[in-house]
Amino acid sequence: MVKISFPQPAAGLKPEKAAEGDGVNSEILLPPCGEEAQPPPMQTRRSSLSGLCYLTMGLIVLLLGLVFASMYVYRYFFITQFPQLPRESVFHCGVLFEDSLYSPFKGQLELHEDVKIYIEENYEQINIPVPQFGGSDPADIIHDFQRGLTAYHDIALDKCYVIELNTTIVMPPRNLWELLVNMKKGSYLPQTYIIQEEMIVTEHVNDMEQLGSFIYRLCSGKETYRLKRRTARRRINRREAGNCNHIHHFENTFVVETVICKKS
Asked: 3-state DSSP call for residue 185?
Protein backbone atom coordinates (compact mmCIF):
# COMPACT_ATOMS: atom_id res chain seq x y z
CA MET A 1 0.00 0.00 0.00
CA VAL A 2 1.12 3.62 -0.65
CA LYS A 3 0.99 5.95 2.31
CA ILE A 4 0.26 9.66 1.70
CA SER A 5 0.62 12.20 4.57
CA PHE A 6 -0.51 15.83 4.75
CA PRO A 7 1.37 18.33 6.98
CA GLN A 8 -0.48 20.33 9.65
CA PRO A 9 -1.68 23.82 8.58
CA ALA A 10 0.39 26.79 9.67
CA ALA A 11 -0.45 28.73 12.81
CA GLY A 12 -3.17 31.22 12.48
CA LEU A 13 -4.83 29.38 9.66
CA LYS A 14 -8.00 27.49 10.44
CA PRO A 15 -8.92 24.63 8.32
CA GLU A 16 -12.35 24.78 6.84
CA LYS A 17 -13.19 21.35 8.19
CA ALA A 18 -11.69 19.77 11.19
CA ALA A 19 -10.08 16.50 10.55
CA GLU A 20 -11.85 13.50 11.91
CA GLY A 21 -10.33 11.62 14.80
CA ASP A 22 -7.58 13.32 16.57
CA GLY A 23 -7.05 15.83 13.71
CA VAL A 24 -3.30 15.37 13.81
CA ASN A 25 -2.74 13.61 10.55
CA SER A 26 -5.10 12.50 7.74
CA GLU A 27 -4.15 9.51 5.73
CA ILE A 28 -5.68 8.07 2.55
CA LEU A 29 -4.81 4.54 1.57
CA LEU A 30 -4.86 3.73 -2.15
CA PRO A 31 -4.22 0.33 -3.69
CA PRO A 32 -1.07 0.01 -5.78
CA CYS A 33 -1.33 0.22 -9.52
CA GLY A 34 -0.34 -3.42 -10.02
CA GLU A 35 -3.00 -4.71 -7.65
CA GLU A 36 -6.09 -3.15 -9.22
CA ALA A 37 -8.95 -5.69 -9.06
CA GLN A 38 -10.09 -7.16 -12.41
CA PRO A 39 -13.78 -7.88 -12.83
CA PRO A 40 -14.49 -11.65 -13.42
CA PRO A 41 -15.06 -12.54 -17.10
CA MET A 42 -18.59 -13.82 -16.49
CA GLN A 43 -19.98 -12.33 -19.67
CA THR A 44 -17.27 -13.94 -21.85
CA ARG A 45 -17.89 -17.35 -20.30
CA ARG A 46 -21.61 -17.10 -20.80
CA SER A 47 -21.21 -16.21 -24.47
CA SER A 48 -18.81 -19.16 -25.00
CA LEU A 49 -21.23 -21.61 -23.37
CA SER A 50 -24.12 -20.28 -25.43
CA GLY A 51 -22.16 -20.70 -28.67
CA LEU A 52 -21.19 -24.27 -27.72
CA CYS A 53 -24.83 -25.12 -26.97
CA TYR A 54 -26.01 -23.74 -30.30
CA LEU A 55 -23.29 -25.66 -32.15
CA THR A 56 -24.24 -28.91 -30.38
CA MET A 57 -27.93 -28.43 -31.14
CA GLY A 58 -27.12 -27.73 -34.77
CA LEU A 59 -25.07 -30.91 -35.08
CA ILE A 60 -27.84 -32.96 -33.47
CA VAL A 61 -30.43 -31.55 -35.88
CA LEU A 62 -28.12 -32.25 -38.82
CA LEU A 63 -27.54 -35.86 -37.76
CA LEU A 64 -31.26 -36.43 -37.25
CA GLY A 65 -31.93 -35.02 -40.70
CA LEU A 66 -29.36 -37.38 -42.24
CA VAL A 67 -30.88 -40.38 -40.41
CA PHE A 68 -34.44 -39.61 -41.55
CA ALA A 69 -33.26 -38.89 -45.10
CA SER A 70 -31.43 -42.24 -45.22
CA MET A 71 -34.52 -44.06 -43.95
CA TYR A 72 -36.67 -42.37 -46.57
CA VAL A 73 -34.28 -43.22 -49.42
CA TYR A 74 -33.98 -46.83 -48.25
CA ARG A 75 -37.72 -47.31 -47.84
CA TYR A 76 -38.99 -45.62 -50.96
CA PHE A 77 -36.14 -46.32 -53.37
CA PHE A 78 -34.15 -49.43 -52.55
CA ILE A 79 -37.04 -51.53 -51.25
CA THR A 80 -39.27 -50.44 -54.14
CA GLN A 81 -36.67 -50.78 -56.89
CA PHE A 82 -34.77 -53.74 -55.48
CA PRO A 83 -37.09 -55.86 -53.36
CA GLN A 84 -35.41 -58.30 -51.04
CA LEU A 85 -35.15 -61.77 -52.48
CA PRO A 86 -36.31 -64.67 -50.31
CA ARG A 87 -34.03 -67.62 -49.81
CA GLU A 88 -36.48 -69.93 -51.55
CA SER A 89 -39.33 -69.07 -53.92
CA VAL A 90 -41.90 -71.48 -55.35
CA PHE A 91 -43.89 -70.68 -58.47
CA HIS A 92 -46.53 -72.58 -60.40
CA CYS A 93 -46.31 -71.34 -63.97
CA GLY A 94 -47.87 -71.94 -67.34
CA VAL A 95 -47.07 -70.88 -70.86
CA LEU A 96 -48.78 -71.01 -74.22
CA PHE A 97 -46.71 -71.74 -77.31
CA GLU A 98 -47.02 -73.01 -80.85
CA ASP A 99 -45.17 -75.96 -82.32
CA SER A 100 -45.47 -75.79 -86.08
CA LEU A 101 -43.48 -79.02 -86.61
CA TYR A 102 -45.12 -81.51 -84.23
CA SER A 103 -48.62 -80.09 -83.95
CA PRO A 104 -49.27 -77.69 -86.81
CA PHE A 105 -53.05 -78.15 -86.59
CA LYS A 106 -53.48 -78.07 -82.83
CA GLY A 107 -52.83 -74.39 -82.47
CA GLN A 108 -51.47 -73.27 -79.12
CA LEU A 109 -50.11 -75.83 -76.70
CA GLU A 110 -50.16 -75.40 -72.93
CA LEU A 111 -47.20 -76.26 -70.73
CA HIS A 112 -47.15 -76.18 -66.93
CA GLU A 113 -44.27 -76.48 -64.51
CA ASP A 114 -43.40 -75.88 -60.86
CA VAL A 115 -40.29 -73.78 -60.28
CA LYS A 116 -38.26 -73.55 -57.08
CA ILE A 117 -35.58 -70.87 -57.02
CA TYR A 118 -32.86 -70.93 -54.37
CA ILE A 119 -31.21 -67.52 -54.38
CA GLU A 120 -28.44 -68.10 -51.84
CA GLU A 121 -27.54 -71.59 -53.07
CA ASN A 122 -27.66 -70.32 -56.67
CA TYR A 123 -29.63 -73.12 -58.27
CA GLU A 124 -33.07 -73.79 -59.75
CA GLN A 125 -35.28 -76.87 -59.53
CA ILE A 126 -38.07 -77.42 -62.07
CA ASN A 127 -40.76 -80.08 -62.08
CA ILE A 128 -42.68 -80.73 -65.30
CA PRO A 129 -45.78 -82.88 -64.84
CA VAL A 130 -47.18 -85.01 -67.65
CA PRO A 131 -47.95 -82.52 -70.44
CA GLN A 132 -51.44 -82.31 -71.86
CA PHE A 133 -49.99 -82.76 -75.32
CA GLY A 134 -48.21 -85.93 -76.49
CA GLY A 135 -44.59 -86.48 -77.39
CA SER A 136 -43.05 -85.11 -74.19
CA ASP A 137 -41.99 -86.79 -70.94
CA PRO A 138 -42.51 -85.54 -67.39
CA ALA A 139 -39.23 -84.58 -65.79
CA ASP A 140 -37.35 -83.00 -62.91
CA ILE A 141 -34.60 -80.56 -63.83
CA ILE A 142 -31.87 -78.92 -61.77
CA HIS A 143 -29.74 -76.04 -63.00
CA ASP A 144 -26.75 -75.76 -60.66
CA PHE A 145 -25.00 -72.45 -61.34
CA GLN A 146 -22.30 -73.17 -58.77
CA ARG A 147 -21.17 -76.35 -60.54
CA GLY A 148 -22.16 -75.17 -64.01
CA LEU A 149 -24.22 -78.32 -64.59
CA THR A 150 -27.77 -79.24 -65.59
CA ALA A 151 -29.39 -82.55 -64.69
CA TYR A 152 -32.51 -83.99 -66.34
CA HIS A 153 -34.43 -86.75 -64.57
CA ASP A 154 -36.71 -88.33 -67.13
CA ILE A 155 -39.51 -89.62 -64.90
CA ALA A 156 -40.92 -91.88 -67.62
CA LEU A 157 -37.56 -93.68 -68.00
CA ASP A 158 -36.39 -93.09 -64.40
CA LYS A 159 -32.96 -92.10 -65.70
CA CYS A 160 -30.76 -89.07 -65.13
CA TYR A 161 -28.78 -87.15 -67.70
CA VAL A 162 -26.12 -84.55 -66.90
CA ILE A 163 -24.64 -81.88 -69.16
CA GLU A 164 -22.89 -78.53 -68.89
CA LEU A 165 -25.23 -75.66 -68.08
CA ASN A 166 -26.27 -73.62 -71.09
CA THR A 167 -26.35 -70.06 -69.76
CA THR A 168 -27.60 -68.68 -73.09
CA ILE A 169 -30.91 -70.50 -72.54
CA VAL A 170 -31.28 -70.74 -68.78
CA MET A 171 -31.73 -67.52 -66.80
CA PRO A 172 -29.77 -67.16 -63.55
CA PRO A 173 -31.86 -67.53 -60.37
CA ARG A 174 -32.14 -63.80 -59.68
CA ASN A 175 -33.25 -62.97 -63.23
CA LEU A 176 -35.68 -65.89 -63.37
CA TRP A 177 -37.12 -64.83 -60.02
CA GLU A 178 -37.76 -61.31 -61.32
CA LEU A 179 -39.38 -62.70 -64.48
CA LEU A 180 -41.72 -64.98 -62.56
CA VAL A 181 -42.64 -62.26 -60.09
CA ASN A 182 -43.70 -60.09 -63.02
CA MET A 183 -45.92 -62.96 -64.19
CA LYS A 184 -48.02 -62.89 -61.04
CA LYS A 185 -50.51 -60.47 -62.54
CA GLY A 186 -51.42 -63.08 -65.17
CA SER A 187 -51.45 -66.84 -65.41
CA TYR A 188 -49.39 -67.11 -68.57
CA LEU A 189 -46.55 -65.48 -70.35
CA PRO A 190 -47.30 -63.74 -73.61
CA GLN A 191 -47.46 -66.06 -76.59
CA THR A 192 -43.95 -67.33 -77.06
CA TYR A 193 -41.88 -69.48 -79.39
CA ILE A 194 -39.99 -72.76 -79.03
CA ILE A 195 -36.38 -73.69 -79.65
CA GLN A 196 -34.82 -77.15 -79.75
CA GLU A 197 -31.55 -78.47 -78.34
CA GLU A 198 -30.38 -81.97 -79.16
CA MET A 199 -28.23 -84.07 -76.86
CA ILE A 200 -26.42 -87.36 -77.35
CA VAL A 201 -25.84 -89.90 -74.57
CA THR A 202 -22.09 -90.48 -74.18
CA GLU A 203 -21.08 -92.36 -71.02
CA HIS A 204 -22.30 -93.72 -67.74
CA VAL A 205 -21.56 -91.74 -64.58
CA ASN A 206 -20.08 -93.81 -61.76
CA ASP A 207 -19.02 -91.12 -59.27
CA MET A 208 -22.18 -89.25 -58.35
CA GLU A 209 -20.60 -87.07 -55.66
CA GLN A 210 -18.60 -85.12 -58.25
CA LEU A 211 -21.88 -83.73 -59.58
CA GLY A 212 -22.58 -81.75 -56.42
CA SER A 213 -25.07 -82.23 -53.60
CA PHE A 214 -28.12 -80.86 -55.48
CA ILE A 215 -27.79 -83.18 -58.47
CA TYR A 216 -26.74 -86.01 -56.21
CA ARG A 217 -30.02 -85.82 -54.31
CA LEU A 218 -31.95 -85.82 -57.58
CA CYS A 219 -30.12 -88.67 -59.31
CA SER A 220 -28.98 -90.86 -56.43
CA GLY A 221 -30.04 -94.48 -57.02
CA LYS A 222 -30.83 -93.89 -60.70
CA GLU A 223 -28.91 -94.70 -63.84
CA THR A 224 -27.06 -91.51 -64.71
CA TYR A 225 -25.40 -90.66 -68.02
CA ARG A 226 -23.46 -87.78 -69.41
CA LEU A 227 -24.72 -85.90 -72.44
CA LYS A 228 -23.01 -84.05 -75.23
CA ARG A 229 -24.76 -81.17 -76.91
CA ARG A 230 -25.02 -81.43 -80.68
CA THR A 231 -25.58 -78.35 -82.78
CA ALA A 232 -28.40 -79.13 -85.18
CA ARG A 233 -29.05 -76.93 -88.18
CA ARG A 234 -32.67 -77.96 -88.23
CA ARG A 235 -35.19 -79.51 -85.89
CA ILE A 236 -35.29 -83.28 -86.17
CA ASN A 237 -38.59 -84.77 -87.25
CA ARG A 238 -40.47 -87.69 -85.78
CA ARG A 239 -38.86 -90.30 -88.00
CA GLU A 240 -35.38 -89.19 -86.99
CA ALA A 241 -36.40 -89.07 -83.34
CA GLY A 242 -37.22 -92.77 -82.97
CA ASN A 243 -34.46 -93.32 -80.37
CA CYS A 244 -34.98 -89.98 -78.65
CA ASN A 245 -36.97 -88.69 -75.71
CA HIS A 246 -38.35 -85.17 -75.52
CA ILE A 247 -38.67 -82.86 -72.51
CA HIS A 248 -40.40 -79.49 -72.83
CA HIS A 249 -39.56 -76.83 -70.27
CA PHE A 250 -38.94 -73.11 -69.95
CA GLU A 251 -36.54 -71.05 -67.83
CA ASN A 252 -36.74 -67.97 -70.01
CA THR A 253 -39.26 -66.12 -72.15
CA PHE A 254 -39.35 -69.03 -74.59
CA VAL A 255 -39.97 -72.78 -74.43
CA VAL A 256 -37.08 -75.20 -74.80
CA GLU A 257 -37.50 -78.68 -76.26
CA THR A 258 -34.65 -80.87 -75.01
CA VAL A 259 -34.19 -83.95 -77.19
CA ILE A 260 -32.08 -86.72 -75.62
CA CYS A 261 -31.01 -89.35 -78.14
CA LYS A 262 -29.12 -92.59 -77.77
CA LYS A 263 -26.07 -93.31 -79.86
CA SER A 264 -27.05 -94.86 -83.18
From this structure: coil
